[in-house]
Design brief:
Strand content: 15-25%
Structural class: alpha/beta
Radius of gyration: 22 Å
Number of strands: 16
Strand order of the largest sheet: 11-10-9-8-12-6-13-16-15
Distance between the termini: 35 Å
Largest sheet: 9 strands, mixed
Number of helices: 12
Length: about 375
Amino acid sequence: MSSHRHDLRHMRHALALAGRGLGQVAPNPAVGCIIVSAGGDVVGRGWTGAGGRPHAETQALAQAGVRARGATAYVTLEPCAHMGQTPPCADALIRAGIARVVAALEDPDPRVKGAGFARLAEAKIEVKSDILAQDAARLNEGFFLRVGAGRPLVTLKVAHSIDGRSAAASGESQWITSDAARRYGHLMRARNDAILVGVETVLADDPLLTCRLTGLEGRSPLRVVLDSRLRLGVGTRLAQTARAVPTLIFTTSPADAAPLNDCGVEVLRVDGDARGRPDIDAVLHALADRGVTRLLVEGGAGVQASFINRGRADRLAIFTAPMLLGAAGRSSVGALAALGLDEAPRFVREGVRVFGPDMLESYSARA
């Protein structure tokens, strides 16, 4: 096997490990690391721990021990070179006697941004980068957006009928999709830092918005509600479970938030848009300030439309159930600002999966 193909194989392994941290490592990136001995054996593996530490390199080096000397480290992001909550990973690689570092891409964090590579090179370690860089960038797109644009990656999740309806005319919406599709939806929750809905969804469905997959119950994200007039009641399941699962309301209302605060709900007032609703960019920046890198938006239709109209829908996850609800049913996405075909937001379809009778189509806003 050629050296390049060897590098690709191990980097794919490192990226698979990195993905295990999604939804758990914010505000840090999700990083994977493989240590491969001079003889070609994998002697250490690691990925970023919950809360961002330990770092992937630290875990992989601990596994490798003395076998790291003369080995190659495959890392999905440039090793850090600054002192944060943990010592610099570049220094740890140097001390371990690593001979070669293969990285997917440079870290955009101004505290790193080439400094890690430079420190390794100064220590006479061979450095090779730009290996599966696009895959690594997509994996940590939320981290990059938070660093570069001050907002998280936004994924809109929609579940609707073949004719694009998310609820029957009566308002009934549970459940359009099958158990298999809903289980995958819960996995999506576990892989995001926060989940957002509008207050109308809460008033209609009284959801928990938690991850209820066996073994992943502890990976429920921050729950976020857009509630202009602060209508969410203390008797809702969100309020009643707020001490167990963090819950945040964005509002433009001056109403007394003390009853909700007493339940453990945090209420944050932000600027309003032209219609008096929480401004989408203000919400996203506030979430980024709290370390959120990946946001899953689950509805309702008006909220989905607000993100699309503002150009803040980075990815779409569209679940389609094999049923028809007719024109009287409720649309899965509210009215958009686009007036003609030439103005309509366009997305690139990136994949299709089947869950039982349902289909999931994944789209990206990338051109």
